[in-house]
Amino acid sequence: MEKRDLLYEGKAKKIYATDQEETVWIQYKDSATAFNGEKKAEINGKSVLNNEISSFIFAKLKEKGIDSHFIEKLSDTEQLVKRVSIIPLEVVVRNVLAGSLSKRLGLPEGIVFEKPIVEFYYKDDALGDPLINEDHIQILKAASLEEIEFLKKTALEINVFLQELFLSCGVKLIDFKLEFGKDQDGEILLADEISPDTCRLWDLETNEKMDKDVFRRDLGNLTDAYQTILNRLRGESAHV
Ligand code: C5P
User: Does residue 239 carry a pLDDT above 70?
Assistant: First the structure.
């Protein structure tokens, strides 16, 4: 497998072509950004942790029959994934009120929902990734009604799996963001990453934050928090 031209550089990853039409080479970066890129920092070791955590979760999902773009981890900071064309939607699942929804509703973080909430955001930096509804998605031609239903159903299945996985190591899954893409056959696949950059994760007993809010809100050392998540997932310090 050969790494070829840089295709795209995002806030947290670089994407390279390979010598195969159907794959791309992802390089995780140490950059951390928040608030639509307004807050930025280089955090040594973040790329290694997110690559490891995301690879671990994608592999576990595959065991459960939920396929993603993930093929294999190539190095500490790199993954080989299927080439997909990203659907310009961020699919957010929420189990507990936090973040932007807490602000929008004017209610305190921590309220547990009776059932999970699914939201869609339009991936457009210039617009600031606005919250949109199913009618808007169809006007934008980002996805058909059938595809929207598929995205929701899959996001909720992933939520059940992730909640269980994190709970088994003493972590509450508050909310998370998914991205999906279409492969060359038009099949929708889970893409991007699942890591503490894209999830809110709170300690089951203390509610300590172990995710990107540590960076967003200056709560302490980000890599220590991500390392704790990785160790717990690996069962090295399994919570009983
Ligand atoms: O900011 P908000 O509360 O809407 O975020 C909901 C969830 O989606 C959080 O877990 C956050 O980390 C994730 N998210 C993300 N990328 C974005 C926006 C939100 O990973 N661009």
Answer: no
Domain that holds residue 120: 85-221
Spacing, Cα 20 to ligand 1 middle (Å): 32
Residue 62 and residue 105 share a domain: no
Residues 78 and 89 in one domain: no
| Residue nearest to ligand 1 atom 15, measured at CA | 198
Ligand 1: centre distance to CA 198 (Å):
6
Q: Atom 19, ligand 1: which residue's CA is nearest? A: 177
Q: Is residue 198 lining ligand 1, measured as CB closer than 6 Å?
A: yes
Same-domain status, 199 and 116 = yes
How much of the chain, in percent, has pLDDT values that exceed 70? Answer: 98
Could you tell me the pLDDT band of residue 88, with boundaries at 50, 70 and 90?
very high
Q: What is the ipTM of this complex?
A: 0.98
149 shares its domain with 135 = yes
pLDDT on residue 92? 99
Dihedral angle at the C-alpha atoms of 98, 70, 86, 41, nearest 10 degrees?
Answer: 50
